[in-house]
Amino acid sequence: MFELDVRSRKPIYEQLVEKLKQLIINDVLKEDEKLPSVRELAQQLTINPNTIQKAYRELESQGYIYSLKGKGSFVHPSGKVNNEEELKKVREELKKLFAEAIYLGVSSEEIAALLREVEGGQEND
Amino acid sequence: MFELDVRSRKPIYEQLVEKLKQLIINDVLKEDEKLPSVRELAQQLTINPNTIQKAYRELESQGYIYSLKGKGSFVHPSGKVNNEEELKKVREELKKLFAEAIYLGVSSEEIAALLREVEGGQEND
DNA sequence: CTACTGTATTAGGAGTGATAATACAGTTAA
DNA sequence: TTAACTGTATTATCACTCCTAATACAGTAG
């Protein structure tokens, strides 16, 4: 499915969250698609099931997946997330990153171009 | 100068880096202005000098300040940073955050509006 | 019932964050 | 030169987090 950098300074569960987020956002994992079970993914990646669970719990709290006891974990449909707390965080992050980028010399035109680039590759309902 | 949240899950030195970055970006700390010395700031904030140094080292590696042995640490002039590694990181972060925001339901129009908002409050050379 | 799912808890080892105490090196002013 | 600043480096110690390991419980499906 993907690789993890065990010797990285970043925690494994955070790397997992990021990678799965990318797969969900880029529609590799479709709406309501079943994710690998905690134990199955743990075996595939040769890491502990608890670490997987921690990543899934984080993804659920951020609104990217939902979990049903006894059934599995599934991709949360885009747009129907409605996680006001996460939205607030993302807006704050955007503003902070904009100020940072501009300070470092990235023009607002280039930033807008990056946005259009990402926008093109998305297509949401 | 500012406050830190010791009982936060975020490391103190990272909080320091963020706060100082904000002060520099928002021009509260002017170009080439001298920052408090490692020991002085440590005393003011009641934290260990080594923690301050770690934050300063990080800020220097990111291009926000420069340090001169025996003299002090100073604000690196905006635009003259020229830290290609940091620029690359920031561009990657922007793209990742754009995809994330759009997935969560933030329209690209709103993102562009946030950019203009930040852009207005900056004014760089 | 059996074999899957998610979820929770406890325990232990490894690594990081923060503190403390020094030490060394370069600058500046008396 | 000396004294008092600066940044920088090292070592040791403690607490906390990350990760693993081993269970256990609860809900679902055949």
TrEMBL record, chains A, B:
One protein family per Pfam: GntR
Gene3D superfamilies: Winged helix-like DNA-binding domain superfamily/Winged helix DNA-binding domain
Keyword Cell membrane annotated: no
Keyword GTP-binding: no
Annotated InterPro entries: Tscrpt_reg_HTH_GntR, WH-like_DNA-bd_sf, WH_DNA-bd_sf
CDD domains: WHTH_GntR
Gene Ontology MF, one: DNA binding
Domain HTH gntR-type: 10-78
Domain of life: Bacteria
UniProt keyword list: DNA-binding, Transcription, Transcription regulation
Protein name, entry field: HTH-type transcriptional repressor YtrA
Organism listed in the record: Halobacillus karajensis
